[in-house]
């Protein structure tokens, strides 16, 4: 697999060397063959300080990898709430969807991340967007996964109860 020096340094765990390469002018937005940016690599490896450095250095927050995943989605998947919050407040695209249609709101609703759901609802995120795979809305996912507080919040913010999922089911509220 072809990797560039910054990617290789991060992948091998040399976060200080990776930061030095970036400080010396390495392209902070250069993607590898799987279209992952150094920011996504840093998050995937759990290198919070390096990820914060890249965010503060104005790395592109919305580079999508081959699966359509962005840095925001990577931070959510790695359960990094501080980075998730920082990415949203730094202007990460909260409507960006993975290839199968999952948005950050879908993921937060599914995993029960109330704080992120609340923060995302302060942006212009679509409450009723459906995924491509099973046509689920964030409300469907919150209810299916047993997160009544999130379901209530979504309903209070205007989530529609009449959207059918792939099985032609309404959210079981």
UniProtKB/TrEMBL annotation:
<dbReference type="InterPro" id="IPR036770">
    <property type="entry name" value="Ankyrin_rpt-contain_sf"/>
</dbReference>
<feature type="repeat" description="ANK">
    <location>
        <begin position="100"/>
        <end position="132"/>
    </location>
</feature>
<dbReference type="Pfam" id="PF00023">
    <property type="entry name" value="Ank"/>
</dbReference>
<feature type="repeat" description="ANK">
    <location>
        <begin position="67"/>
        <end position="99"/>
    </location>
</feature>
<dbReference type="Pfam" id="PF12796">
    <property type="entry name" value="Ank_2"/>
</dbReference>
<protein>
    <submittedName>
        <fullName>Uncharacterized protein</fullName>
    </submittedName>
</protein>
<feature type="repeat" description="ANK">
    <location>
        <begin position="134"/>
        <end position="166"/>
    </location>
</feature>
<keyword id="KW-0040">ANK repeat</keyword>
<keyword id="KW-0677">Repeat</keyword>
<feature type="repeat" description="ANK">
    <location>
        <begin position="1"/>
        <end position="33"/>
    </location>
</feature>
<feature type="repeat" description="ANK">
    <location>
        <begin position="34"/>
        <end position="66"/>
    </location>
</feature>
<dbReference type="InterPro" id="IPR002110">
    <property type="entry name" value="Ankyrin_rpt"/>
</dbReference>
